[in-house]
Fold this protein.
Amino acid sequence: MGKLYLIPTTLGETAVEKVLPAEIMQVVRSLRYFVVENTRTARRHLKKIAPEIIIDELDFKELNEHTQPIELDMLLDPIRNGFDLGILSEAGCPGVADPGADLVKLAHEKGIQVVPLVGPSSILLSLMASGMNGQNFAFIGYLPVKPTERSAAVRDLERISARDKQTQIFIEAPYRNAKLLEDLLAVCNSQTRLCIAVDLTMDSEFVVTKTIGAWKKAIPDINKRPAIFLLQSQ
Amino acid sequence: MGKLYLIPTTLGETAVEKVLPAEIMQVVRSLRYFVVENTRTARRHLKKIAPEIIIDELDFKELNEHTQPIELDMLLDPIRNGFDLGILSEAGCPGVADPGADLVKLAHEKGIQVVPLVGPSSILLSLMASGMNGQNFAFIGYLPVKPTERSAAVRDLERISARDKQTQIFIEAPYRNAKLLEDLLAVCNSQTRLCIAVDLTMDSEFVVTKTIGAWKKAIPDINKRPAIFLLQSQ
């Protein structure tokens, strides 16, 4: 049986050498079968990683929100036929917050070897650079959008962070970043620390941790930029 | 002012090219000042990353459990003098579960730019390869060692994982891995899924997810090997 490789991609317009180890280029060159979220962007990404490969000789199958559970199993056919298979994410590390996780789950049920490769993760990069507790942290994805639910969720984060000394990490759709920041500044205790990490791995990257009180004095423009937020309260 | 670079290292005896992007070698070559946990192993690591650098021309300051809070501030002196400074971890990504986080916290208080670089994290690699929920997960470090406290903690993990659909990630000192696994098999529900990731990024790596019931039928030998555990219950 073949193996299932988890192949990270860049987080936006970054040089491949900046965020991907050389071994990823070698693995990509050795593979013929790929499972991707979107064939067009995956082709573009592979061309960037390994410019000399002949994309038209590769086999792409899509795994995204349109994939039916019954189709999942067929995606593993190359592995059953003795070929290695690669899963590519649209950005960052596959299997963390994308449909690839379902295929990895199935691979384990079938006794297939899964091999994760190193790449950029906004969760991990922001945690490293935040100066917050990395011995205990939670990534919780998106907060609720409705105002009252969101306020309650933010207060919960503060309470849990203080109780468990657990850093709370969350994201928002880029076009709602400014609104999220506004809500955080309105709801949180002024002593709570908030880290905002924007455009990670890109030239315009910034990662800054301040108290809510300090952020209120100079609100950064983060709208429509990829961002991730970390909160630690006392 | 200089910048504070967070420089990941390999997780054990792995080729640098397998887990570190080429840019890390460039950053290391450009730095003269380093903060490390242990100078001897840091020198060895830098030699591996960039064999041509002259280690004796570099400046190493140690940051570890012996460092007093009052000494932290002095570690940032090179940055105040206009030089970039690199923090190296003993293994994996600095600032996540090592004393480097305290220095990063202080850097933010001083308005210093912090730049995280991409490298291997056992937390993230195991999560990618586990097939478990990566949209909501918590890393909680070590479980209690005392039997009754540990059993209670494991039951808590199962409860929280089921309630919040949150993958629970934890570690143990390698020489206690076999005991931890024994305890997990004894305490957890047979339908709970457990992922064991051992020797990540090394030739002997394995990452396997099974139900507790299935693990009981064939208990792997993981003692004294670096491992990380992930649990998801329903």
Remarks:
- Chain A touches chain B through 60 residues (CB under 8 Å).
- Chain A has two domains: 4-116, 122-232.
- Chain A has a mean pLDDT of 95.
